[in-house]
Amino acid sequence: MNGTPVQLELDPATPLLYALREALELNGPKFGCGLQQCGACMVLIDGNATPSCVLPIAAVEGKEVTTLEGLASEEGTLHPVQQAFLDAQAAQCGYCLNGMVIHAVSVLDADPQAGEAEIREALDLNVCRCGTHSRILKAVLKSRKS
Q: Per residue in 75-99, pLDDT tens?
């Protein structure tokens, strides 16, 4: 979990989101719809953006799980995507932010020069009700590696 081995004594069917928020007190992933439809609960599992709200913890045994909290460096420096979101003021209510950032990191890790169309398509899986899409897209494009 975020680079540190974790062992939890929970029912293997417990949704990963509940283990993260309740047992590990990691509040980056949010409960949104509970149906893997909104993206608020996204985490990186072995580098891939994955909804955590219905995924049983047994499914992530032996895998690297990274939450929003795990993106920053040990010294506290934000991940470039996180910093770009701040710089672009890409947050309004902030509820979708976890999923947007996690998904953007996954896309850019796979293709550091991902184009606007590819980024839009990936982020389309994340629901933002506040309408900050243009600032979110601007932030993700800004955070691409040169």
A: 999 999 999 999 999 988 888 999 9
Summary mean pLDDT of the chain = 94
Average pLDDT over residues 113-138: 92
What pTM was computed for the model? 0.94
Identity of residue 111? D
Residue 49's DSSP bridge partners are 44
Give me the sheet containing 43-45, strands edge to edge. 48-50, 43-45, 65-66
pLDDT value of residue 146: 54
User: Residue 146: is it exposed, middle or buried by C-beta count within 10 angstroms (0-12/13-18/19+)?
Assistant: exposed
As a dihedral over the C-alpha atoms of residue 101, residue 107, residue 111, residue 116, rounded to 10 degrees, the angle is -80
**DSSP assignments along 13-67, one per residue:** TSBHHHIIIIIS---SS--SSSSSSS-TT-EEETTEEE--SS-BGGGGTTS-EE-
Both tokens of residue 3? 């680079």
d(C-alpha 142, C-alpha 59), whole Å:
34
